[in-house]
Design goal:
With 252 residues, this protein is an alpha/beta fold. It has seven helices and eight strands. It has a single domain, classed as Type I PLP-dependent aspartate aminotransferase-like (Major domain) (Aspartate Aminotransferase, domain 2, 3-Layer(aba) Sandwich). Helices cover 31% and strands 15% of the residues. It has an eight-stranded mixed sheet, sandwiched between helices.
Length: 252
């Protein structure tokens, strides 16, 4: 990639942060769940963890309260503690995920954001049903609660169709969808992204002043891989159309 596109080595670290080729592939992938994402809302990051941190920094200030799943991934409270934020735990069902009813009660008090993993949640593995995702998106938008959706495990779902993220039901730009290719391809790439909705400018500013642009060569390597793997066709093991060749069929 560097030999074919030597100008990638000459770019500034705080300019042209999002490589168009990778943004196009992310938008293409979102067609599978009824999107698509808007290319102009995407910020490429150094992993999903950085995406989560950028989102929290963009929509909260020290002392704010953020709702999290209980039980949830151990990283979430560590992120909040590092940023000086308070955690408000919301009970989570092992099958259907975070309780929207409990969330409705909790948001009657001042809450800045909600951080959750609705698809293949870690550690429970729960998947929030589509109707609950729609209710969740509507409720949080009405209450002014910014949503930070960690969808890093969505591609690992067992089933014939990838579950839709909450972002698919967002009509106001209130949901920030964070993900990466650390679980589906390799963690060594350190490539993540956030589809930031109406918070894109604030998140891009946080990205600029903290880490600058994500490696443009790695972005283009991933983009080329995704473009080539999109032509893989149908899985020979089960007949399911595979949108990305790197995601091995679980039935093998």
């Amino acid at each position: 990639m560097a030999r074919r596109h030597p100008t990638l080595l000459a770019g500034g670290s705080h300019t042209n942060m999002d490589e168009p080729a990778l943004v196009r592939q992310l938008v293409r992938r979102s067609l599978a769940w009824g999107g698509p994402l808007a290319g102009e809302e995407i910020v490429i990051t150094n992993s999903c963890n950085e995406a989560l941190c950028l989102c929290l920094s963009a929509v909260t200030k020290p002392g704010d309260t953020v709702e999290v799943e209980s039980p949830g991934h151990y990283l979430m409270p560590q992120l909040l503690e590092t940023l000086g934020l308070k955690a408000l735990e919301i009970p989570t069902d092992p099958r259907t995920g975070l309780s929207v009813e409990a969330l409705e009660l909790a948001t009657q008090r001042a809450v800045a954001a909600c951080l959750l993993v609705p698809n293949a949640s870690n550690p429970l593995g729960s998947v929030m049903p589509d109707e609950k995702k729609r209710q969740f998106a509507t409720l949080t938008a009405a209450r002014g609660v910014a949503v930070i959706e960690d969808d890093i495990y969505g591609d690992l779902h067992f089933g014939p169709q990838r579950p839709w993220p909450i972002k698919a039901f967002d009509t106001t730009g209130n949901v920030m969808l964070c993900s990466s290719f650390s679980k589906s391809l390799t963690p060594a790439l350190r490539i993540g992204f956030v589809a930031a909705g109406r918070y894109r400018a604030a998140i891009a500013l946080q990205k600029t002043i903290t880490s600058g642009a994500t490696n443009p060569i790695t972005q283009n390597v991933l983009a080329e891989y995704l473009e080539s793997s999109a032509k893989s066709g149908i899985c020979a093991a089960c007949g399911v159309v595979m949108s990305v060749r790197l995601m091995a069929c679980r039935r093998r």
